[in-house]
Amino acid sequence: MDKPHRDRTPRKGIYVLPNLITTATLFGGFYAIVAALSGRFSEAALAILVAMVADALDGRIARLTNTASDFGKEYDSLSDMVAFGVATGVLIYAYSLHHLGEYAWLGGKLGWVIAFAYVACTALRLARFNVLTSISGGTGDFFGLPSPSAAAVIVFYVWSAHSWGLSGESLLVVSMILTLGIALLMVSSIRFPSFKKLDLTGRVRFVSFVMVVGALALVMIDPPRILFILFFAYAISGPILALYGGRGGLPVVGKSRRKE
Description:
By secondary structure, this protein is an all-alpha fold. The chain has a single domain (about 15-195, about 205-245), classed as Up-down Bundle (Four Helix Bundle (Hemerythrin (Met), subunit A)). It contains nine helices and two strands; from the N terminus they run H-H-H-H-H-E-H-H-E-H-H. The chain is globular. Mean pLDDT is about 85; it is low at about 1-10 and about 250-260.
């Protein structure tokens, strides 16, 4: 009689390894905010890059070690919001958008409004992703630009421009268009290819391995600019495929039971 009761008892505690890696994502976002507010934009961008790497690893490690949990999913989503939403919004604002405050005829608030719009779109993107994942299981393409990829476009844009010695004020128009464009792509229904099904533990052809090594070597030549080109190409691939290939629209996962 007691056995069914014990089966219904929730398991206490959390898994250390995947959540520790998720904490690295959270720390990267927090450190990026501190660095951006101090004008250390390259350090802030590097911190968000570390957060991206950690975000790519925690889910895979959780699945490989059979330590995935609902707590880990929620913690990962909150950490993503900090690193790829708030920290990235603060970075682009501190680097460039804050100069809009000098134009009184625009109200002096347009800069932080655009930065907040980006942060809000990140929150909406993550919330929609969580809902779609719970319904459909998270298989197939992404609907809307993934928040880590969106953050990568903004972060590597700032890193590249800053390393070139370009001021945020001189790139104000570009920063506005890029930030708003990437924000809208996140909340769009445009399909983007997913790379979650890539098998990193399986066998591949030698030529494919050489291509991967070559790509890594190319990135190491000039990380900020090469990474910006790669992620920007990924961001615009969705609209291009939607325009010429008809890819778009949210998935139909079932009919609602509510009567109108």
